[in-house]
Amino acid sequence: MTAIQTRRRPASPASAANRIWDAGPLTKVVLAFALVLSAFPIYYMFIMATRTNDEALDTPPPLLPGGNLGDNVTRLLNTEDAHFATGLINSIIISTTVTLSVVLISTLAGFAFAKLKFRGSKILLGSILLTMMVPLQQMGIVPLYEMMVNLGWTGQIQAVILPFLVNGFGVFMMTQYTTQAVPDELVEAARVDGASTMRIYASVVLPAVRPGMAVLALLTFMQNWNEFMWPSIVLNPDNPVVQTSIAALNQAHGTDYVMLFTGTAASVLPLFVVFILFGRQIVGGLMEGAVKA
């Protein structure tokens, strides 16, 4: 009787290449450990915001939520030393305004530098890169403060908004992203069809650079939300931002650990909301930039 031998079909090169990038058990364990190690401080902060000071000092510390979150938030908002509610509202206004301005100006400038030909474009782009190499905020803080005094803006939030409406990093980032994401042929085809420069920007460039805009928006929002030095100089204690509110809270209630945890948790909550709303586009923009690079 003749034996029939069956041969296995050789694996395709594509499937073999995919298996190279499959995560092994050790990789998954390391990633899970890194995730727990990174997320635990944030989790513990929110847990402490739901506890009392006596429970926060227990040994071992509590790891499950308590029932005092409402009382802690009420005490935080009613604390006159920090003006936390005012600081939270001011930070939202400042960060949102600056983010919208930076994203809009950066995409316009990036489109101009990447796809439009005009005299002196390389010199202007080089000048923008030079601003990224010099800490202008630290070196220009004295003349900038004098400017705000002359304008009569000290103690007002526009003094924190104006210096950050344009960002050299944002212009450079969107220039590089537009160069890669928008083909020259697409712009030329729109020109042939009779589209104006602003129509090309609105109908061709913006849809293509949307992931990069989301990344820039998140970075800008986080940077301005966490800004401390300039607001602490130009704003008054009764009209703070959220970071200076936390500093004032620490000075006035340094031993009230639960209130400090509650204020810190409230200060990072808007960042979680922004990331949840734009997380998909942000990750897509990062991955797209990595693949193109």
TrEMBL record:
Residues 88-278 form the ABC transmembrane type-1 domain. GO terms for biological process: transmembrane transport. It is a multi-pass membrane protein. Keywords: Cell membrane, Membrane, Transmembrane, Transmembrane helix, Transport. PROSITE patterns: ABC_TM1 (PS50928). GO terms for cellular component: plasma membrane. InterPro entries: MetI-like, MetI-like_sf. Its main location: membrane. It is found in: Cell membrane. The chain crosses the membrane at residues 29-47, 88-111, 123-145, 157-179, 200-222, 257-278. Belongs to the binding-protein-dependent transport system permease family. This is Sugar ABC transporter permease. It comes from Planobispora takensis.
